[in-house]
Design brief:
The structure is a homodimer of 334-residue chains. The model of chain A has no long low-confidence stretch (mean pLDDT 94). The first copy, chain A, contains 6 helices and 15 strands. In chain A, the strands form 3 sheets. Chain A has a 10-stranded antiparallel beta sheet, sandwiched between helices. Chain A is of the alpha+beta class and 334 residues long. At the A-B interface, β1, β2, β6, β8 and β9 of A face β1, β2, β6, β8 and β9 of B.
């Protein structure tokens, strides 16, 4: 019989139907041939092509840049001209809309086209995380940006068309219902139990020791009990922090270390799968609250969300997180 | 500047970033070559291969069947042996799980392998809807099935691997948070305004006359004001009904008519795009409530949900629903 598991933090349920389970090698994806050169003439993110991007907002490394942050040329939202809250709502008949104010930035992770997060060295990876932090921090000062989401799309199944390694940042002028619900569930847990649900999960996962993928002094990575998809990984700081802005220099280094370890394991176990990751953080005006806990959610794109998932918001997973953790933990860097 | 629109029923916001807009022909998808034969020897859904499926639960047409319903051979959930509520919860340390009780059925829409909903005749399409209704009605009598979701996956991007035309039904032993939130938002609107938010939308859309794709005496199909993706279509009965079980024979015929019209338009305008549709209905124990309104949501799979969408629950759309409605309304059956 299948089993249905609840995510204690979001209270969402995942169906585990294990009859359909696959081995790691069954997930091997057809890849578009990647341009395996260090420099590509028409790539706007390659070193030497800086003139092809809008004006840079941050550069790390001088004179040889290591990470550059630029506005997205096809930005989904328009930069706010003011720093105090000034987003206009509009009523059209029955409906409500608001100005498309926000930020949409590209964080170019390397000057080298065929670089790869999983194969970067530690110092390079730290600079990527440093750029995340710096942009998060600067944009947080603008009241129009109610939520800042940093994410990475790796491979075409994960929604990227550009192969040069990069992450993105979008700042929105409101907190969407999906995030608001998560915050509320965590608040309810805190009201019931008097502690952060994520802190409780960390303590329990260390004690259970069945789903852990990596652990360092400051971070833990595990396969969540109600994983929404095969090889879903959650990376959390062990110390309670609601907002990503609270992570200092030490945690930047620690996050670079553990994230890199997880990505290498995925790369090696699943033959460089397409994936997304996203930094899930409380909005900046909630930094310091006791009930939320920022974390990184890694979602390999090994399956397709079909009508059932789209219509119900639920997921059917085919492999238990205990099994994924076992496979990933036993994966040695090749 | 982009614009952000709110779905009045769910209160979710969609970002419209129109700089990236495409023409219909730009969406043309690479298709796997379809087996264009009426009969395929190893297809379990073809006429003559009935022995390859589990025992059928419903057949329409005798002796020549038109629609057959069978349990899914790789069911995500296990049929309940009892009709009174008997799903067990389990506590494992910090976490909660429940038995994987439910239903997972396949509705084979035609005996013919290379049939297509958009090209079926009206009588055939009516039998498909009749099968939806009959299974929904029978399964509703089992208290273990708290929510029944009927959906269709068309094409590999929509998550199907079998090309023989079919829909699916999944009955779950709980109502997921995603659906519960929708019900609650509709309830709140009712408490505020004294009427069903979907009824208000229908009235407003008829009056605004900018997003309508098809209209019959009993049904309306329009591109929602805050469409989550290009060519998103919502089909609603004009009369207030919260649960799909309330649609009688008349509405079965009416739904077959309008759904077929919409699918033909999508097929012709977008060159047979992959799509999902799902019947979004109140749980059966809420049939008769005043605040929800069952409908069919059609979601062409023209774009990929990337890290931002997965992490925020929000969508970035690149074309306004007014433009989609205009293009689809002008599409003549070829």
């Amino acid at each position: 019989m299948s089993i249905i598991r609840q995510d204690i933090a979001t209270r969402d349920w995942t169906i585990f139907a294990l009859e359909r389970a696959k081995r790691p090698q069954d997930y091997k994806q057809e890849k578009k041939i990647r341009n395996n050169q260090a420099y590509v003439e028409d790539c706007p993110f390659c070193k030497g092509n800086e003139h092809m991007t809008p004006e840079q907002r941050l550069v790390i490394g001088d004179p040889d840049w290591k990470v550059r942050v630029v506005p997205n040329k096809f930005a989904a939202l328009t930069t706010s001209k003011q720093t105090s809250y000034s987003v206009q709502r509009h009523k059209t008949g029955l409906y409500l809309s608001m100005d498309g104010i926000g930020e949409h930035e590209v964080l170019i992770e390397s000057p080298v086209h065929n670089q790869h997060l999983a194969t970067m060295d530690q110092a390079e990876m730290e600079k990527v995380i440093q750029a995340y932090q710096q942009r998060f921090s600067v944009l947080s000062k603008n009241e129009n940006y109610q939520l800042i989401i940093i994410f990475r799309n790796h491979g075409s199944r994960a929604g990227t068309s550009l192969e040069h390694p990069h992450s993105q940042l979008i700042a929105t002028p409101f907190v969407p219902g999906y995030i608001r619900n998560r915050l509320q569930e965590a608040q309810r847990y805190f009201d019931d139990m008097g502690c952060c649900v994520y802190c409780d999960m960390i303590e329990y996962e260390i004690q259970a020791n069945k789903r852990i993928i990596e652990q360092t002094q400051d971070f833990i990575a595990f396969a969540p009990y109600a994983s929404v998809s095969p090889y879903n990984i959650m990376v959390l700081p062990k110390r309670h922090q609601s907002c990503f802005i609270q992570a200092g220099d030490d945690l930047q280094r620690g996050l670079a270390t553990i994230l890199k370890k997880c990505l290498i394991k995925l790369h090696d176990a699943l033959m460089d799968p397409d994936y997304n990751y996203v930094i899930d953080s409380a909005p900046v005006d909630k930094a310091g609250e006791k009930h939320y806990h920022w974390h990184v959610e890694i979602l390999p794109r090994l399956t397709t969300r079909a009508g059932f998932e789209l219509g119900s918001g639920m997921y059917i997973n085919t492999i238990l997180p205990e099994e994924c953790a076992r496979i990933l933990s036993n994966t040695q860097k090749s």
